[in-house]
Specification:
Layout lengths: L9 H12 L4 E4 L5 E4 L1 H7 L3 H4 L4 H7 E5 L11 H8 L3 E10 L4 E12 L5 E10 L4
Amino acid sequence: MTTKTVQQSVEMILVRQLASYLFVPVLVFDTTGTVVFYNEPAERILGVRFEETGRIDREEADRLVELSDDPSVGLENSERPLDVALQQRRPTHVRRWLLRRADRVRLQVELTAFPIIDHEERLLGAMAMFWEHHGP
């Protein structure tokens, strides 16, 4: 967790604002995979408010929420969605991933991640939305 102030682009400020209005859990990442914001529905799942954590580097985020592919699903979903969004600059959706929170509760989730790219084709970060998967 860091307390330093980081200058954000107008686009990332607007993405953060949009995320705060959405009903589904949303995490906003910069280009390094650092969580720069998560909304209230995500706070409820993670069990901690964004105001308490602030920006979370990738390593710390991986400790807060462990995300892994569901072994019952084939290898077609083996790439981490955030990596696809940031490295390949394309959206991705996975249907059955396991999310294990810091309190060790496991949820089967669907997750969509997509890059945030400005008008000059610069990668600004990514957004990930997830929700609990119900059914087979």
